[in-house]
Amino acid sequence: MNALQEKLFLELRQTKVEIENSLKNKQKKDWLTKILEEELDDINCAIQKLADGNYGQCEISGEFLSDDLLKMVPTIKSVKDSEYLEVFCKKTLH
Length: 94
Known about the structure:
By secondary structure, the chain is mainly alpha-helical. Helices cover 63% and strands 0% of the residues. It is built from five helices and no strands. α1 (3-25) runs antiparallel to α2. The radius of gyration is 15 Å and the shape is globular. The protein starts with a helix and ends in a 6-residue tail after the last helix. 9% of the residues are buried. The model has no long low-confidence stretch (mean pLDDT 90).
């Protein structure tokens, strides 16, 4: 594991704990529960990839994703997923 991967691993583990605590403390399921559960699944998948040594590798092409992309979205699974990032980014107002 390189330095970037170690940093991302720690961030992923911390986020995992935070989400698990949020889910545990929720009184009832709502629209946010599904989002948190999906994010938790993505985090667990990324952590497993780090453990297996194939973190950062595109699940479709096998090519390695850029460090910049992994820093922005540590749970990204493929280059194709990066095409949807603009949907989640704020656009500046002119």
